[in-house]
Each structure stands twice: as structure tokens, then as C-alpha cells.
Write a structure and sequence with these properties.
The chain is an all-beta fold. It is built from no helices and eleven strands. It has one domain. The strands form three sheets. Strands 1-2-5-6-9-10-11 form a seven-stranded antiparallel sheet, with no helix packed on it. Strands 3-4 form a two-stranded antiparallel ribbon. A two-stranded antiparallel sheet has the order 7-8. It starts with a strand and ends with a strand.
């Protein structure tokens, strides 16, 4: 794992990290009856990385962007009816998601605080799993990727200045 954090005069900050790993059982495990045993951990990518960029051009404006990368990973795909689809191992594709946030703080000098109004977008590229089962008795454990599709949000926060 490698990570770094740089800050310039509280105006710009960047954080980043990347992990390369190999998660293996000491001996092969039978995840699915009738299929070859696997030493790889399921749902565990060998590559993972993140990046966060925060900008504060003035004391009132804040801008942030973040990125997350997840590499490919082995998944078990069970079928309730093998005449419809076989039990199998599948390799989930790698994906990257990006988020953006913009905030503006209104100072409230009488109580030495501020009110921040902010808004943003999570999963800007709308990266989302495309091969969900959609039939009765589906494999509800076959899930990977971001937990939310593209999501727009707004908020208000009371903060110290």
C-alpha cells in the first residue's frame, strides 16, 4: 500500500493511495459444488486506489473532487435453476467512480460561526453493475460495484470559522 497527503497553505490539499495485494487462502476452497476449488478470496480486488482533491480558493468557497478505482475481482455466481443459467465464477470488471462537491459558507459573525450551503454529485459517470439477475429466486449475493447510481445531493452545515 502506498498513500500520500500534500497540503499547500490550507488552499489546496491532495490525498491519494493505491494498494496492490494478492489475497489467497493457504489451500483451495470449494465455493460452489461441482466447480473447481479456488485459492483466491472472492470479492477482493488485487488493485484499489483513491484520490481526493480539496480546494479552498477563499475562506468562503470549498471545492472537492474524489475518485475511487477498484480492480477486477472474482465472484461466485449461483443459479437457483441451472437450466436457466449455470453456477459459475465470474470476474467482475474494474470500475472507477468520481464525485464532486461545491460549498459556499455564509459567515454569522454574531455567533462566530458560519453556515455552509453545499451540493454535489456522487458517482458522476453513473458506473453501476449491468448484469443483475432479474428473475425469481435470483442470486442476491451477486453484487459488485458502487452502492449507488449517480446521485445528486444538497445540504446545509453549521461550521466554525
Amino acid at each position: 500500500m502506498c498513500s500520500s497527503d500534500l497540503n499547500y497553505n490550507k488552499k489546496a490539499q491532495i490525498e491519494a493511495g493505491f494498494t496492490l495485494q494478492s489475497s489467497l487462502h493457504a489451500e483451495a476452497v470449494d465455493y460452489i459444488d461441482g466447480l473447481e476449488s479456488e485459492r483466491k478470496f472472492l470479492r477482493t480486488p488485487n488493485e484499489y486506489g483513491y484520490l481526493v482533491l480539496m480546494l479552498n480558493p477563499t475562506s468562503r468557497i470549498s471545492i472537492s473532487a474524489n475518485g475511487l478505482y477498484t480492480g477486477t475481482m472474482l465472484q461466485a455466481k449461483y443459479s437457483p435453476d441451472e437450466t436457466l443459467a449455470p453456477n459459475e465464477y465470474r470476474t467482475a470488471p474494474s470500475y472507477a467512480e468520481i464525485g464532486l462537491k461545491l460549498g459556499y459558507t455564509f459567515p454569522v459573525k454574531s455567533i462566530d460561526t458560519g453556515i455552509e450551503i453545499y451540493g454535489g454529485v456522487k458517482n458522476l459517470g453513473n458506473v453501476y453493475q449491468k448484469d443483475f439477475d432479474n428473475y425469481r429466486n435470483r442470486d442476491s449475493d451477486y453484487i459488485y460495484g458502487p452502492s449507488l447510481p449517480r446521485t445528486i445531493y444538497i445540504g446545509i452545515k453549521l461550521k466554525t470559522i
